[in-house]
Specification:
Helix content is 67%, strand content 0%. By secondary structure, the protein is mostly helical.
Length: 91
């Protein structure tokens, strides 16, 4: 619920990095930043505005965007790190 409050803004960096190889990092940053401003102004989800953007949709379809916008895919090594810490505590 808390993650949903951001309308996807929490994963905007992951989206920018996903677009970087296609658009260049700086341009992807600027484009995603502008789209994020529209999320704030409109209250609409980031994934919807990304999917509607012509530049974004040239490279990433809705399915790819939903994957990038899934916070579960943005955890990196957090799970493995927690497991290591818990294992150390058991020693």
């Amino acid at each position: 619920t808390n993650l949903d409050l951001t309308k996807g803004l929490i994963v905007s960096e992951a989206v920018m990095m996903g677009l970087g190889p296609y658009l260049g990092r700086q341009y992807a940053h600027d484009l995603v930043y502008d789209i994020c401003r529209n999320v704030i102004a409109s209250g609409r989800p980031l994934v919807d505005l990304l999917a509607e953007n012509e530049e974004v949709s040239k490279y990433l379809n809705r399915e790819a965007l939903e994957k990038l916008c899934d916070p579960a895919n943005y955890l990196g090594e957090a799970g493995a790190m927690v497991d290591r810490v818990l294992a150390m505590r058991e020693e």
